[in-house]
């Protein structure tokens, strides 16, 4: 099941779709360079592609952590990515008041995992008419996401997708329960696996979230094998220099070879 949004190419490719980009918009040149690289790769492999970038990071471990370059400036960059490469764009919002503002610039509004039960945010996003991508809370069962999605539908917007980003396992780890993907697909919405956030190691004593990027391919392969509709990955040319989530991001130079292997897995599965 694919997302129905203008500018999403290759919807008939019978592959997974891809949401990918930097964690947060750090600047125009950086965003355009990343988008250009991924567009070239996704076009060659005929993968439906949506550029991902946060215009601001509201959930940070420490008050001195980087949050963004300014809302309007970052949103204008997202719009420029959209217009330059003719691709859809997704960003997250953090309050009901932000929904209308962000909707002027992007195609898909994303609800962060910690906020997936907040009715006012879900309804505000729904009322924009944009696709609403709801991240499953680390504290929720897959079955419970039915009610989050239904709030958007009940607000008059049937355009919903659900993203699994792992489930809390103790204080410092997340676990992906792959049973949740087919369970949430029963709701009738596209289900996405957030590969890189599933490998975060939160609540570190340093105040900086850790990660296990060496397992990105492991998580992604398993997601494709069980039939996820889409993959979500954060990627950066130099993850360790990224201003947010560098510890669990995929190095951009590794993306093409990874996607080639994932496409091969999906094409093999499709034969059955």
Automatic annotation (TrEMBL):
Q: Name one GO molecular function term.
A: 3-deoxy-8-phosphooctulonate synthase activity
Under catalytic activity, the entry for this protein gives:
D-arabinose 5-phosphate + phosphoenolpyruvate + H2O = 3-deoxy-alpha-D-manno-2-octulosonate-8-phosphate + phosphate
Q: Has UniProt tagged this entry with the keyword Ribonucleoprotein?
A: no
Q: In which pathway does it act?
A: Bacterial outer membrane biogenesis; lipopolysaccharide biosynthesis; Carbohydrate biosynthesis; 3-deoxy-D-manno-octulosonate biosynthesis; 3-deoxy-D-manno-octulosonate from D-ribulose 5-phosphate: step 2/3
Question: What domain of life does the native source organism fall in?
Answer: Bacteria
The UniProt record lists the DAHP synthetase I/KDSA domain at 15-267
Q: What is its EC number?
A: 2.5.1.55
**Record keywords, A-Z:** Cytoplasm, Transferase
Q: Where in the cell is it found?
A: Cytoplasm
- InterPro entries xrefs: Aldolase_TIM, DAHP1/KDSA, KDO8P_synthase
The record's comment on protein family reads: Belongs to the KdsA family.
- Protein name per the record: 3-deoxy-8-phosphooctulonate synthase
Organism source for this protein?
A: Coprobacter tertius
